[in-house]
Amino acid sequence: MTIQSLWRSRSADRGHSGFPVSVHMILIREESVLLLRRKGTGFCDGMYSVPAGHVEPCEDVLDAAIRELREETDLNAHRDNIRIAGVGHRRSQESRIDFFVLVDRWTGSLKNLEPAKCDDLSFRSMANLPSPIIPYVQSAIERVAEGTGDNQIWFDSATSEEATGVEPAQAYGYDAFVSFS
Fold first, then answer.
1. Longest Cα separation, the chain
2. pTM for the whole structure
């Protein structure tokens, strides 16, 4: 039995499956942020986001960020160049925890390694973000751009409808963030 299957069975034995945990990578170059446009995933297709993915059972959030960044973009980052900027709790039929990390430095040449899930991968001006962009991702980018993430981590918890006014099946988001210093 693998550690992942053991983790799943023990969670199921307790009557819950745990929260899906995601990590979202914010890469800023000059005044631009790396964005991708989602397609073919069934979640917010046609909307812009930052590279992101799920944290695997027993995986560290920073290791997940490094892995997902490499899998989606062919860029490489080291733990020392990544810091957690914020955390969000999306409350819906399936509650989720989202970590937003700021990647300060990376190496490699940008490539779209998941063309079935993404039809645009490029650095876009933070002063003129493309539309539509997933609301909670836009909020996170704006927090980082404002510098409010410096030396503190923000947190928010909101239902999809509270945060966006949109039915949960259509989008998830946060309406405000609380900072912890």
1. 50
2. 0.79
pLDDT tens digits, one per residue of 62-120? 999 999 999 999 999 999 999 999 898 877 667 888 999 999 999 999 999 999 999 99
Q: Is residue 28 scored above 90 in pLDDT?
A: yes
How many other β-carbons are positioned within 10 Å of the β-carbon of residue 56? 15
**Residue 52: other Cβ atoms inside 10 A:** 23
Got the DSSP string for 49-64? Answer: E-SEEEPPTT--HHHH
Q: What is the percent of the chain with per-residue pLDDT over 90, rounded to a whole number?
A: 54
Characterize 94-126 residue by residue with b for buried, 16 or more Cβ atoms within 10 angstroms of its Cβ, and e for exposed. Answer: eeebbbbbbbeebeeeeebebeeebeebeebeb
User: Which phi and psi (to 5°) does residue 113 adopt?
Assistant: -90, 0
CA–CA separation, 70 vs 65, rounded Å?
8
In the block, which residue shows the tokens 């920073």? 62
**What single-letter DSSP state applies at residue 45?**
T
The two three-digit tokens of residue 96, written as one number: 């989720």
